[in-house]
Amino acid sequence: MHGRVARGRSRADFPRRLPAVFQGFLPGAALLLGVALLSSCGQPAESSNRIAQPSERIFSTARPVPVSIEMDPDDLEVLRREGRSFAVLAEGCSDGPSIYEYTDFMATATVDGERLQRIGIRKKGYIGSLSKTRPSIKLRFNQFVQGQHIDGVRRMTLNNNRQDPSNVFQCVAYEIFAAAGVPASVCGFAELTINGEDMGVYTTLESYDRTFLARHFASGDGKLYEGQLADFRMNWVETFENKLQDTYDDRHELYELTRALRADDEDLLELVEPLIDLDAYISFWATESLIGHWDGYNGNQNNFFLYLEPTSRKFHFIPWGTDGAFATSPLVVGVPPLAVSAFGMLPYRLYGLPEIRARYFDRLRELLDTVWNEEALLAEIDSYAAVLSPNADEAWLEILRTFVRDRRGAIEAELAMGEPVWDLPLNPDERCFTTQPEIHLTFSTTFGTADAFIPFGQGEASLSMTIDGEEQVFTTLASTAGSVPDLIGLTRPTINVFGLRADGSLLVVNLTFEDFEFVPGSPEFHGAATLGAVAELVNGVPVLLGVLSAGTIILEAASAEEGAPVRGEVTSVWFKQ
Question: How far apart are CA 408 and CA 396, in angstroms?
Fold first, then answer.
């Protein structure tokens, strides 16, 4: 490899969309969260658009399409509360996909004035997007009535955009993927109501099914897997979730690629090339890097689909979960290159081959020359903002605009120094978490104290916990509460309990809540919406130790009004990586 990463521009100039106080907590949390011209290079073989695009009436960016759901109120309450807590990730040491069996309910849907009865509805979400207030959902129009559809559309995904208050990141990202020749979902906007309650603006996405695959590939009859914290390593292969094999789950091709990626450099390309469409993958890889999709495959082994096209018998990557794009990764210690991301096993190995590096950077430069049209992208962002006004957060829109304006210059400056060196490690081969004994804490403080530079003296607290078998002893304890940014940069009600130890190190237990749950009562841990974190500060450097996500929260007093009393207790096991 030649050259080093360009240092002419500070990476701090690029938005991580996380408060600085949390960024140091995140290295150990990677597993928690963790459009102009269409270029023909890298486009899937024989993609002839034989099947028409989904209806523009259903997936529209020209207006929010009205979508109304009517369902049994008791079913809705169950749907809202369903979802993973972090505890599910701590089980099994990643020996299989972390599948949560969401319940399918029957409902009536009215989409742009067209009413369908007996449709299927279920909640969706992994960890970061889960919400009881505004759940993401999947609609299946033909689940209970065979052949039922709207303009040929049988399924819809509606994302709550929890990590994107601008409501536009996803559609911009998917359109850039499509312009780069990467198969990607058709995207639109919707105004959702459920049982008469206005749920706000959602992003609508075409679901990845046989119809989508047949439109983009020579055959739509192959194997489809979803990758959520999944990679081509022996300890990880079983984490790929089978999506379309109805009977026997035969994943021998995944193991074959995994074995190939363990070969020496001189044999690697010969073994990998028959198994994966490298031109298509390089386009996918370069596009993820270009748009800063740090939570995709190449950055976090997350949010992607993998399709084994049966004619060529080669794998293709399909993007997903792009609401976190247009930022640098908040999970990485140090300063990774901007022009390439290679945390997954496939890019990690391929980047070590000079031939592949040359092809990758040729493709990246081509994307900058064709797809990355700043004027067109900024006009598109402004158009979407106008369509969604006033439901497009201007601060987040400006984050996106800044990224678009600055991205070309930053990448070109880096490449001017030569091909960036990639010397960052893979994520740990074992993705295991140890369950620690119960932690018990109490707090009594007032809302608005979380901004205090020195927390001690702000509120009373008690904290009882053990770390790796050693009971923690604190010389001073305190608590604060207030509205502060959470781990994804959203301002939410937060409680902190601080414990100072005799050696001067500081332990912090942080609890964040959805707004509607921050009232007297017993809110449940729920994904990243209601979550606890344990961090240690040594010499001013914060390090995330683990998370609380399986226990009891009692809020005796809670209000987001300045000066209001905040009082309660928490008892929970916690999970240490």
Answer: 20
Q: Structure tokens of 51?
A: 């099947």
Say if residues 150 and 156 touch (Cβ distance below 8 Å): no
List the one residue out of 428, 422, 300 whose CA is nearest residue 350. Answer: 422
Nearest to 81 by CA among 96, 100, 99: 100
Q: State how far the Cα of 402 lies from the Cα of 313, in Å rounded to an integer.
A: 41
What does pTM read for this prediction?
0.81
Domain boundaries, the chain: 434-576
CA geometry: angle 373, 379, 381, nearest 5 deg: 100
SS3 call for 117 = strand
Q: Which helix (H) or strand (E) holds 539?
A: none
As a residue count, the chain comes to 577
Structure tokens at 272: 């990998």
- Could you list the beta-strand ranges (E) of 447-500: 460-464, 466-467, 470-471, 476-485, 491-500
pLDDT tens per residue across span 509-553: 989 888 888 999 988 887 777 888 898 876 666 788 888 877 899
291-347: pLDDT as tens digits? 999 999 999 999 999 999 999 999 999 999 998 899 888 777 678 899 999 999 999
Answer whether 7's CB lies under 8 Å from 337's CB.
Answer: no
Amino acid, res. 567: R
